[in-house]
Structure formats: C-alpha cells, structure tokens
C-alpha cells in the first residue's frame, strides 16, 4: 500500500475544511448533516471523520482557521480590512457559497450566545483577534496615524463593535450598497485628522 505524504494529508484536510465551510455557510451548524458534509466535501464520512473526531471538532477547526486568518489580516491591514473582506465575501447576498467566511462568523456568534461550553473554548480565539487589533492600533498610534484623544483600547472596542454590527447587517440581508462608504467613515473615525 503506498504511503500518503504529509502534503497529501494536509491537502485532504484542507479539502474537508473548504467543503465544510461551504456547508456550514449554506445550512448552518444544525443543518450541516453528515450527508451534506459528504456532498460538499466530495468525501465519505469515514474520510471526513478520519481527520476530525466529530462535526463539533470539524466546525471548531474551521472556525479556528478563520479566526487565525482574521487575526493575520488585522495584523497586516487592520480590522477595517477584515470588514471589507466580509463585504466582498458577502457579494450581493444571493449565493450562500459566497458567504463562506461570513457564514462561519455567524455560526460562531450564534453559538457564543447559545452554547456556554463553546463560549468558554472560544475565548482564546476572541482574545487573539482583540490582541491583534490592539497591537496594530498601538503601532499606528506610535507612528502618529491615530487620533490621540481616545485611548487605544476604546478604539479597538469601537472597531470590534463595528465588525459585529456589520455581521448583523449582512445576516439580515440588508442592502450593502453604501457599506464601503460606511467603512471609509469608520476608518476615518480612528485616524488622526
């Protein structure tokens, strides 16, 4: 029997995550049945659960991957860029597959509200995003790019609240026509004038 390389294992794991992202975005956590996961990943349940203990572990791995991606974007380009990427990913709101990153974020938000165990496990990832946001803001403040009349922790919390508001807006399917301008305003609100 031929050996499977580490790269092939990683590619298969990523294939599962990508398919699961689409499935969770389209059907939500509860609606992402094993059968639907099989269909969207193109793999059998045995293959899926060879890599992930159960659906909960699969969702958590996906949410963790997205949280790391968000923290990376924040570190390089700021939290407003994360919001812009959510807007691009939301497209016109008609294709569930386009909502993949947003879909994961929505499920995380819902589960934070309804699942105390998940909320406890998720705190480290939330703290990572907050830390990345604050670190970037502190660098910008040191460079003189941020307004100096509001403390960095307040600016960070303002941006996090704007992110949650954007997610809520997109969730409700409200028009996204003017949101680029709104994000420009959010960005201007934290910058030195």
From TrEMBL:
InterPro entries: DNA-bd_HTH_TetR-type_CS, Homeodomain-like_sf, HTH_TetR, Tet_transcr_reg_TetR-rel_C_sf. The keyword Transcription regulation applies. Keywords: DNA-binding, Transcription, Transcription regulation. Residues 33-52 bind DNA. Residues 10-70 form the HTH tetR-type domain. It holds the Pfam family TetR_N. The keyword Transcription regulation applies. PANTHER family: HTH-TYPE TRANSCRIPTIONAL REPRESSOR NEMR, TRANSCRIPTIONAL REGULATORY PROTEIN. This is TetR/AcrR family transcriptional regulator. It comes from Pseudonocardia acidicola.
